[in-house]
Amino acid sequence: MDVILNLLIYTFTTGSIYCIIALGFSLVFGVAEILNLMHGVYYMISGYFVYTYYIAFNNMAIAVALAILSTTVFGALSYVVVHPVLESPFKTLLSTFAVGGAVSEILFLVYGVTTYGLPNLLPGGFMILNTPVIKQAILAAGVALFIFVCFTVFLSRSDTGRAMRAVAQNEEIAKLSGIDINTVKFTTIMIAAFLSSVAGTLYLPLQSLNPGVWMKITVLSFVIVVLGGMGSLGGLLMSSYIIAFTEYATTLSFAEGSYIKTGVYLLIMVVILMFRPQGLFGKYLGPLEVQV
Amino acid sequence: MRSLEGKNDNSVILRTSGLTKQFGGLVAISGVELGVVRGTVTGIIGPNGSGKTTLFNTITGYVRPTKGKVFFDGEDITGLRPHEIVSRGIVRTFQVPQCCRELTVRENIRLACLRCYHARTIESKIDEFVRLTGLEGYYDSRAGNLPIGYLRLLEIAMAVATQPKIILLDEPFSGLTDVECQKTSELIKELSNTATLVLIDHKLKHLMPLVQTVTVLNQGTVFFQGKPADVSCSPDVQRIYIGGEIG
Amino acid sequence: MNIGGRRLHVSLLTKNKRWVLILGGLACVPLIIDNPYYLKTFTIFFVYSIFAMSWDLIGGYLGIVSFGHALFFGVAAYTTAILNVKLNWPPLLGFPFSIACSVLISLVVARPTIRLKGHYLALVTFAFPIITTNILYAFPNFFGADLGIPGLSPLSSSRTRDFYIVYSFVWVIFFLLRRMIHSDTGLILRAIQSNEVAAMNCGIDTASIKLKMFVLSGMLAGAAGFLYAHVIKIASPANLELHMSVEALVMCIIGGAGTLSGAILGAVVVTIVNELLRVIEQYRVLGYYVLVLIIVLFSPKGLTWYVDSAFTLLGKGKRRRSAVIRGEER
Question: What does the pLDDT read at residue B76?
């Protein structure tokens, strides 16, 4: 019973976090057609920003706010760096990877391998049926879901959201309609960084910071996006929970579970790509296309 | 090139039976029964969206039919992959000529010759096909630099190089000037001496004189079949070509 | 090419004169260089050349852009490590088995990989090495987890002999591949990359050719992995890492691949750069990433057209092919 409850709690909290991280990745991929290999960096670096700002100002709330801001700016910078090679998807892949690696190395040199010691915004926990639940985790999940819903509204109602959807569907026509493609792509990456940083600043304090986590988060993001399929926000949400669930279940089921969980969901991704490339809930293939 | 002499026995070389293709909710062709007689030139006409190209696609393996069968020389070739169909003697051309743009004319034709011709004879065969289609002077031009008229000729040269028994031409006159259409007609006449032909096109002025039978498709089904003269006179056919004139 | 025997030989010679000189020049390396470390570096450069050529075969000539080529490299390395260290087989005996394992893995990976294009392909090829690494970590006692399997025997009794063994591999592979590229097979490869539909329409079984090339590529990468393991005498998860896969890409980008010699050139540059970076050991990894970034950002605009076409022209896969077939666009 305990195990199941833990599983559910983990699935809910972690899944919600994964959802907005994957959302950012899906946006960048769908709108800007960039398979952003450094996507995980936004999540990771927001944690480091929080840590640094907390040490500077000794106030978690301020640290979180500043970290979110800084990460968004960082996201903008990452676009600027990669921008010259955007017409070449191959070069984009390589350069995003290189930037990710470089940032990770810099963080490693400055902060070392692991960093601990951040207090939670919402300290303490409570019990559900004899299972401890950390308040911060629930806060993180709640905020994540709230942001997700807000974003859904943003995407369908706002001008920017509409522009983003237009560019995602057909860049040429969007351009002809007078939409500034560059600005839209730029905004999209910033939104992706913002979403990841919300997740990171709230969730990372619960864990230790590690400069190598970016790749795992990137992998996680594209697995979720492939599983869920492009064009379906609900699908993305479902898929995030499925992956979070799988992750935890794998860790429980195998002795070396924590080492192989990445492999497990990558295997799921490969299977999906082979048999149902549009994902479980996908409406269109987007830049992910498969030949007949 | 293979000659049809002695084989003009009025037998059906290509037959489709109940051929249907559905793309999601859209039915592109439905229940198409087509019989192409060996040694003839058949025309397939119809308004846009009537399923002509889909018909070609399902016959030649680029698209798998939802229902129905395709028979060639008595063999059931439904669902075979495109290269297998080419190796049985059916070749087709595309509305947008499919040639390897980065390769030269010579290399493209050579590519097509690889399957059927021995290495020693390929060079002379390339010359033969170039002469047939009038591409002299373009041997070493990059295909991507050729204007559309010459690209079509190249595509036809490549098609002929596969030693086809039947050639399906998809809109060979599209995008060409009248003069170019004339030349293409002459080429098609010459091709008809050695292979059965099926033509799709909208330019009926050029198509009709070449064909012996015409099949009219409308909204995915066979609307009318008969001699060119019958088709031209039929008020029904004129009606489905909105605002169009025939012949 | 197939003009006549005599003319063929003459043209081969003049074309290859340059290479014969380089070949001869490099053969003298062990005679000039005494330092065993530098000799080993040269040997590693040759191994990298083989690896780069294996990637280029499918990436540069077929547009199958593999982001996980380290898979074949690492699988071969581990195979020979297990046979050599755990079962005490001599490297010579382990060689065919390593290659066989690479071939097997290629066949397994081929099915999802070959049918996909562009970003999809990148993701799938990216995934497989990670899955394999995970499998390695799942059995830490057998595979040695992080540390891998150390203690492999060297290829021969001296570093110089090692050098010549790897050296012969490189040139045999290079000249064989070169002959293939300049033959009709090479024409078919270029045709498939340019317009697969056109190739199919010539009666060419493109799927089968892609599979064969993919397996050949995996085999060659496996050969490189085998040699590498015995030169550095250890097989570790680093052999499978993304870093290794990216090395192949970087080497081919620098060398301006789509040509075999480009792959070798790229390997030279990367090896030299890696060695130079050792000077700033602490910042070596960072320096590497920064350099890759600079190279990618400042490489000439058209440099990677051959792989980009795999993403865009060909890579809008189904939509593009259906459009072609529907008669809408090129």
Answer: 93
Residues of B contacting chain C (CB within 8 angstroms) = 53-54, 57, 62-63, 81-84, 86-87, 91-92, 94-96, 98-103, 107-108, 110-112, 114-116, 119-120, 122-123, 158-159, 161-162, 170-171
- Please report residues of C whose CB lies closer than 8 A to that of A264: 134
Residue C131 in any domain: the answer is yes
Per-domain residue ranges for chain A?
Answer: 2-212
Mutate to test the interface with B, among C115, C187, C325, C329 (most CBs of B within 10 A): C325
Which among B229, B162, B151, B226 is positioned nearest to B191, based on CA atoms? Answer: B162
> Beta-carbon neighbour count of residue A41 at 10 Å?
30
Per residue, the 3-state secondary structure of chain A, as one string, reads CHHHHHHHHHHHHHHHHHHHHHHHHHHHHHHHCCCCCCHHHHHHHHHHHHHHHHHHHCCHHHHHHHHHHHHHHHHHHHHHHHHHHCCCHHHHHHHHHHHHHHHHHHHHHHHCCCECCCCCCCCCEEEECCEEEEHHHHHHHHHHHHHHHHHHHHHHHCHHHHHHHHHHHCHHHHHHCCCCHHHHHHHHHHHHHHHHHHHHHHHHHHCCECCCHHHHHHHHHHHHHHHHCECCHHHHHHHHHHHHHHHHHHHHHCCCHHHHHHHHHHHHHHHHHHHCCCCCCCCECCCCCECC
Q: Render pLDDT for B89-140 as a digit per residue (tens, 0 to 9).
A: 999 999 999 999 989 999 999 999 999 998 889 999 999 999 999 999 999 9
Instruction: Judge whether residue C15 has pLDDT over 60.
Output: no
Binary contact (A97, C246; C-beta < 8 A): yes
The whole-angstrom separation of Cα A131 and Cα A134 is 10
If one counts the domains in chain C, the total is 1
pLDDT value at C1 more than 50: no
The Cα–Cα gap between C26 and C168 comes to 11
Residues of C in contact with A211 (CB under 8 A): none
Q: Which residue type, as a one-letter code, is found at position C302?
A: G
> Is residue C313 over pLDDT 50?
no
**Interfacial C residues in 304-323 facing A (CB < 8 Å):** 304, 307-308, 310-312, 315-322
The reply to whether C180 falls in a domain is yes
CB-CB under 8 Å, A98 with C296: yes
Q: Which domain covers residue C226, as residue numbers? A: 35-241
Q: ipTM, 2 decimals? A: 0.89
Q: Kindly report the number of other CB atoms within 10 A of residue A109's CB atom.
A: 13
What confidence category does residue C234 fall into, taking pLDDT thresholds of 50, 70 and 90?
Answer: confident
A112 pLDDT band (50/70/90 cuts)?
Answer: confident
Quickly state the pLDDT bin for B172 (edges 50, 70, 90).
Answer: very high
Which residue of B87, B101, B171 is in closest CB contact with C194? B101
C residues 98-117 near A, CB within 8 Å?
111-112, 115-117
User: Is C65 within the bounds of a domain?
Assistant: yes
pLDDT for position A202: 86
- Give the A:C interface size as CB pairs under 8 Å: 150
- With bands split at pLDDT 50, 70 and 90, how would you rate the model's confidence at A81? very high
Residues in chain C closer than 8 A to B118 (CB atoms): none
Test mutation, C64, C252, C289, chain A, max A CBs within 10 A: C289
The shortest C-alpha distance from B122 to chain C (Å) reads 10
What is the C-alpha separation between B38 and B51, in angstroms, rounded? 23
